[in-house]
Amino acid sequence: MAKLTIADLKKIKDKVHSETSLRAGEHRAKVTVHMGTCGVATGARAVMDSLMGAISEANVSDVIVTTSGCAGLCSQEPMVTVELTGQSPIVYGNIDANKMRQIFMRHVMQGEVQTPFAIAKV
Amino acid sequence: MLEISLHILDIVENSTRAGAKTVSIDIIEDTERDVLSLEIRDDGSGMSEDVLRRVIDPFFTTKTVRSVGLGLPMLAQAAERADGRFIIESKGGEGTRVAADFKLSHIDRQPLGDISATLVTLVAGNKDIDIIYRHEHNGQTYIFDTREIKKELEDIPINHVTVLNFIRSHITEGLKEIGAEA
Ligand SMILES: Nc1ncnc2c1ncn2[C@@H]1O[C@H](COP(=O)(O)OP(=O)(O)OP(=O)(O)O)[C@@H](O)[C@H]1O
Ligand code: FES
Ligand SMILES: [Mg+2]
């Protein structure tokens, strides 16, 4: 791998270790982007990019980002599930990069469910 | 799919669903031979000969509702459209190998696209799976190996957002260094 790897990872390790909230295993939210074939074909990866970008801009590191497989709801892809710690997960459908950004800023950061895009409360 | 890297994301999803522990992805760009080749190998549950035969038949689907074709037939079609070939081999209990090649200069060949976005997405969703990505461009090679990263990170999960951002830059830089251009 490229030369810079190890030095940079050490810095990352120190930075993450200094963040007490994560040391205690706490996080603000978990965001899952569904990555079934229909989702991938209709822009789920761009939704993931948008989410990662929004997290970087907000400069937070206590959000867990993950993916899941096919949810069997092709017509609603790309789909995203937002689970604020201690609350019921909200599933959003037909998400694109802009809607993802809005969901991150309003729902993840401020706790306001974005009802126009929500399709289910699990 | 608009990019080969999106096929990769989709095909590796099959591997993770099959319980793979390690997935290897190999890309070779060979300008002289005018070939772009892709190979994905996993150590998942594999398929019986019977399932394997049906999988390459585009009319076979186990799902009832869908708006786009199946993952594997879509990749097979993409390769055929670009004068290439598609091969799938699998053994129950051992794993699966999917290979596709494309004529590099073919007008209908999809771009490779954003490989770092695909790999970041795969790592984010599959922190316990090891992913080894190897990209060769006219003799120069870039390798991304989650095992090396995990060794350095120790107790920090590889899917931590700070680590994912690092991985994205690392791959983007690494591919630039070898002059990847497909
Ligand atoms: N790497 C693999 N290991 C084991 N079985 C596999 C693998 N890849 C594919 N299969 C089997 O082949 C079937 C067809 O795969 P394919 O990707 O074409 O469609 P799918 O995954 O069923 O649906 P889609 O990809 O459209 O969501 C899968 O359902 C699975 O049974
Ligand atoms: S993503 Fe469409 S059926 Fe799974
Ligand atoms: Mg599939």
| Overall pLDDT score of chain B | 92
CATH fold category name of chain A:
Glutaredoxin
Biggest interface found: A-B, 39 and 46 residues
Q: Domain count of chain B, please report it.
A: 1
- And the CATH topology of chain B? Heat Shock Protein 90
Distance between the termini of chain A: 42 Å
**Integer tally of domains of chain A:** 1
Task: State mean pLDDT of chain A (0 to 100 scale).
Answer: 89
Find the CATH superfamily of chain A. Glutaredoxin
Calculate Rg of chain B over CA atoms. 16 Å
If you compute it from the alpha carbons, what radius of gyration of chain A comes out, rounded to the nearest whole angstrom? 16 Å
Summary tags:
heterodimer; A: 122 residues; alpha+beta; Glutaredoxin; 5-stranded mixed β-sheet; 5 helices; B: 182 residues; Heat Shock Protein 90; 6-stranded mixed β-sheet; 6 helices; binds magnesium ion
Folded structure, characterized:
The complex is a heterodimer of chains A (122) and B (182). A five-stranded mixed sheet of chain A has the order 2-1-3-4-5, covered by helices on one side. Chain A has one domain: Glutaredoxin, CATH 3.40.30.10. Chain A is 43% helix and 20% strand. Chain A is of the alpha+beta class. Chain A has helices at 5-18, 20-23, 37-41, 44-58, 97-110, and strands spanning 29-34, 63-68, 80-84, 90-92, 118-121. With 182 residues, chain B is an alpha+beta fold. Chain B has one domain: 2-Layer Sandwich (Heat Shock Protein 90). Chain B is built from six helices and six strands. Chain B has helices spanning 4-17, 49-55, 71-81, 115-125, 146-153, 161-177; strands at residues 22-30, 35-42, 85-91, 95-103, 130-137, 140-145. In chain B, helix 1 (4-17) packs antiparallel against helix 3 and helix 4 (115-125) runs antiparallel to helix 6. Chain B is globular and about 45 Å long. The two termini of chain B are 16 Å apart. The mean pLDDT of chain B is 92. Chain A binds chain B through residues 1-2, 4-6, 8-10, 12-13, 15-17, 22, 33, 35-38, 40-42, 45, 48-49, 52, 55-56, 61, 63-69, 72, 74-75, and chain B through 1, 6, 9-10, 13, 16-17, 63, 65-68, 70-71, 74, 114, 117-118, 120-121, 124-126, 142-145, 148-149, 152-154, 156, 159-166, 168, 170, 173-174, 177. Bound molecules: adenosine-5'-triphosphate, FE2/S2 (inorganic) cluster and magnesium ion (MG). FE2/S2 (inorganic) cluster binds next to helix 3 of chain A.
